[in-house]
Amino acid sequence: MRKFLVATLALLLMLSFTLAAANAAEKGERASGTVKKVDMITNTVTVETAGGQEVSFTVDPQTKITVSGKTGTLADLKEGQRVTVEHKDGKALSIQS
Question: Does the domain at residues 29-96 carry the CATH identifier 2.40.30.170?
């Protein structure tokens, strides 16, 4: 009985790590910095990170944009604004200001 319990707990522990890793991969990566450019024609936002690197992200209707705690749009993002972008493969999943 004890061996079964230990094996079950080990399996549950491995499953929880696997789910956590899958969730992290689904969310993508994060970049924080200052908005350098908002392009409404190409639906992109360019952010300068703390290291001075400029990175552009594509924004689409599924991108969740939050400005001062309220739901926003690409048009609500302004140059000089501090943002955190959650992104994957060059696409912004969420942008918070």
Answer: no
In tens, the pLDDT along 2-16 reads 665 555 555 454 545
| Beta-sheet pairing, 64-67 with 91-96 | parallel
Rounded to whole angstroms, the Cα distance separating 70 from 66 reads: 5
Are 92 and 86 within 8 A, CB to CB? yes
φ, ψ dihedrals at 11, nearest 5°: -65, -45
Q: What is the DSSP string of 35-86?
A: EEEEETTTTEEEEEETTS-EEEEE--TT-EEEETTEE--GGG--TT-EEEEE
- Looking at the whole model, is its pTM more than 0.85? no
Neighbours of 81 (CB within 10 A): 17
Encode pLDDT of 70-96 as tens digits.
Answer: 999 999 999 999 999 999 999 999 999
Domain residue ranges of the chain, discontinuous segments joined by +: 29-96
